[in-house]
Amino acid sequence: MIKKLFLTFCFLFSIFYFLFLPPAFAQENFLTSYDVTYTVLESGLTHVSINASLTNTTSQYYASSYKIRAGFSNIRNVSASDSDGLITPEVEKSSEGYSVGVNFNKRVVGINNVLLFNISFDTDDVVQKQGTVWEVNIPGIADQREFSSFNVHVKVPPSLGSPTYMKPGQSIQDLNFTKEQLGKSGISIGFGKNQSYGFILDYHLKNKHVFPIKTEIALPPSTNYQDITIDSIEPKPANVIIDKDGNWLAQYFLAPSQKKDIRVKGKAQVNLYPKKQVESNKELAKYLNETTYWQTKNEDIVKLSRSLRTPRAIYEYVVKNLNYDFSRVTDNKARLGAVEVLKNPSSAVCLEFTDLFIAIARASGIPAREVDGFAYTENETQRPLSLEKDVLHAWPEYYDKELQTWIMIDPTWGNTTGGTDYFDTLDFDHFAFVIKGIDSRYPVTAGGYKLEETKNKKDVNVSFIDSYDQALPVLTSIFSVPSAVLAGIPIDGFITLQNNGPTMYSQQMLTVESNFLFPVEKYLKVNDIPPFGYVKIPVSFNKTSFLTKADAKVTIRVGEKSISQNIVITPFFLTKWAIIGGILFAGITIVILSIFTARARRLSLFKQKERSVIRGKG
Predict the structure, then answer these.
(1) Domain 475-573 classified CATH 2.30.130.40?
(2) Tens of pLDDT along 192-206?
(3) Which of 61, 105, 387, 390 has the highest CB neighbour count under 10 A?
(4) In terms of pTM, does the model score above 0.90?
């Protein structure tokens, strides 16, 4: 989140040989020690005080002046002094920052004699507050060999509390560091429980076909690192579903040649450490497969996987062996993938750092996948953003079976910052938009839904907000079963659960109870339902006896809510249609019998008359 500014301390001595002998100088003639105190104020200003000492290692030389070069973008209130009083500093600004030079009041001559002096200034570059997080960045040392000792002390206001994280990791109660701990990349210290963002995302869809289509856009999802609130989606989607990677996909129907512009507004709360996310071996197996850019069966990848058996070893290999290619960002060159970047290690951007880590991890039997999204930076030289479309970022994550969760890391920034730790602890600056595990190319992240006429439009707008209020999901239940059924046949229906709230409805068990039907009680699993999404859950009961006549009550319980519905079960012969049919059947039967009776009577009379005629003739 903060500029990773590195202090480069360098010597610029004006050396005079004692007793006016011919001038000569070697840096090893002096031992240089620094004791630096960074005092952070609640205003965000930091007072830097450098107590330095130069110790002669010979009896022939002395230092008359000294200069430091500080890579801060601004310093002010510069002062200097030595043991004989104040010194007027000479301050110069360059493209690399500021340099401060001093001409000493006193010349200390003689072996083991020490010259003490102080340089102090104020700067805004050490600490910044963004959103709900404070981050303090202490610069590293360009060349540790120049200093016999280099100690740093950090003082922060009590209101900040204890640090949330420290890079590199050490006791978070101790804010004192040695030159070995500072290294080249320095120290980053974070204060705050979590970070809060507000976002506005625009998506542009077009149906290029002559028939209607169903399409979808990817919304930022809640994950084990972040909680998402979707305040509005305009226009509203037909449904929002969750795919196998956990992405939230809003579905739309487009008529032939129809265009649709969609705007999503919401908030995010990003946490430093992930929540547990238990995955079965069957679920994890899909994150070991080979895909377009993660060629796990390639000979070179397999060879690396045999020696790099842990996520840390793979991370360190990727950080050390790839070089970030800034020209790739502006030239918009095609994604290389894991195999090609091995052939061209000096031409990598965040996608290639991610692809290579995932391919080697999967080949080593470590489930891994890609995360694309927003990453906050104020120094794109040290923390670059290079994902296509709205200049976003990509980083990998792997599954830790011991911790039972997915762990996000960033080998790209580990490389470009010169070794800052993005393995053991990430930061509050990575905000996930999509997860790619099943497919290395899908879904498309926000910012990637462009049309020709919108290709230059900024579609991703993310800003810090002061707080994240956790809203609750609003669940609507609709129980759809027949209100009246015939006895002797199964009873089938479904329950529709609609999440009308702004946050995800988390997985729960649904209970179906009946006072008459079987099973009397059953439990159904309700998976997560994202905002503006719904699910349909089928419900069925066993068939009853053909003679059953009863009123059955069915109750559905989800969480603390319940809905009930009565079902009238009637034997077929007691239904109105059966009665009507019976009446009609009886009527028709009577009519038919009447007709047959009348015909039989007429036939009998005819035969009697015929016999009478015959007897008369006789």
Answers:
(1) no
(2) 999 999 999 999 999
(3) 387
(4) no
